[in-house]
Design a protein that fits this description.
Shape: globular
Strand order of the largest sheet: 2-1-3-12-11-4-5-10-8-9
Bound molecules: 3-isopropylmalic acid, manganese (II) ion
Helix content: 25-40%
Largest sheet: 10 strands, mixed
Length: 356
């Protein structure tokens, strides 16, 4: 079977890490008899430099015509002074909207071999940590009406509207419950229903969806409390489901408590099996092109692509096993080496591919 993958290397370390994921995918193809065809496209700062636009129409078209998208990272100091609607980050929002990627899955797990990397006390994460943040990705305040008011009694002002339709909440809640069924059967929905009307609607719709999943436990938490519980007792969580903005913030917090953001993959899914896959870390321009970046988050994102879009779970398992074997054998990239010897980006990719 041939699979068409749009590759968006992007900026900073994006190209470094995407190259290693391709190496690993090719090894999977060889071993399991699949072929992967790659179409490299521009987005972010790289696209601004070459075309004047952060998200050229050609990129959207090629992504739409592919079976899945693998993205590195976008952004960097070079484009920081650009106006909001022309910054590289807009490319991500544009891709999410154009491709209908409403469900963002961000697993945060502590790898046993790296358990001392967590900034939390050992007793808090003892026995492992394995959470998935399910973030709504195409609605809410990031996509709501926005504007500026030249004059108000307190001077010029600006606003962004948080709005959720029932159907937007229902479909993301279903993704979270379906995920929980395959895990530890617990969903925590995060909102601010004590203050926000949109959160009250959110909470009501999530409760309706929960009725279809009698074997899954549902908890509701206010976002301020959730932020606190994540560092106080993160092991209480299995699947967290929340709005675009709360998910943006809480998924950063969840990834940081694992201590190894360079290891964490993510998936952004639309209806059907289409998805865009990317590491949780950013473009890290300071180490770009220096063979220092950890390619594991992107390699694990490729594994998620095999699992969720292509339905190739044995192949996905074999990538995840190869990453664990890499760590167990003591190999480390500079971000996780804690003073020990480390291997470069390209060696890490080669070793993991060889372990498949
Ligand atoms: C993320 C990023 C993006 C977001 C930015 C770059 C637009 O922070 O993927 O979490 O806020 O969604
Ligand atoms: Mn973010």
């Amino acid at each position: 079977m041939n699979y068409n993958i749009a590759l968006v290397p992007g900026d900073g370390i994006g190209p470094d890490v995407v190259a290693e994921a391709v190496k690993v995918l090719d090894k999977i193809g060889e071993k399991f008899g699949h072929s992967f065809t790659y179409n490299k496209v521009l987005a972010g700062g790289a696209a601004i430099d070459q075309t004047g636009k952060c998200l050229p129409q050609e990129t959207i078209d090629i992504c739409k015509g592919s079976d899945a998208v693998l993205l590195g990272a976008v952004g960097g100091p070079k484009w920081d002074s650009y106006p909001g609607d022309q910054r590289p980050e807009r490319a991500l929002l544009g891709l999410r909207k154009e491709l209908g990627l409403f469900a963002n899955l961000r697993p945060a797990m502590v790898f046993e071999q790296l358990s001392d990397a967590s900034p939390l006390k050992p007793e808090i994460i003892e026995g492992g940590l394995d959470i998935v943040v399910v973030r709504e990705l195409t609605g809410g305040i990031y996509f709501g009406e926005k504007g500026v008011k030249e004059s108000t009694p307190l001077g010029p002002a600006a606003y962004d509207v948080e709005q959720y339709a029932e159907e937007e909440v229902r479909r993301i809640a279903k993704v979270a419950f379906d995920m929980a069924v395959k895990r530890r059967r617990k969903v925590t929905s995060v909102d601010k229903a004590n203050v926000l009307e949109s959160s009250r609607l959110w909470r009501r719709v999530v409760a309706e969806v929960a009725k279809e999943y009698p074997d899954v436990e549902l908890d509701n938490l206010y976002v301020d409390n959730a932020a606190m519980q994540l560092v106080r007792n993160p092991k209480q969580f299995d699947v967290l489901v929340t709005s675009n903005i709360f998910g943006d913030i809480l998924s950063d917090e969840a990834s940081q408590i694992t201590g190894s953001i360079g290891m964490l993959p993510s998936a952004s899914l639309s209806t059907g099996n289409f998805g865009m896959y990317e590491p949780v870390h950013g473009s890290a321009p300071d180490i770009a092109g220096k063979n220092l970046a950890n390619p594991i988050a992107t390699i694990l994102s490729a594994a998620m692509m095999l699992r969720y879009t292509f339905g190739l779970s044995a192949e996905a398992d074999s990538i995840e096993d190869a990453v664990k074997a890499f760590l167990t054998k003591g190999f480390r990239t500079p971000d996780i080496c804690a003073g020990k010897e480390s291997v470069g980006t390209d060696q890490a990719g080669t070793i993991i591919a060889d372990l498949i």
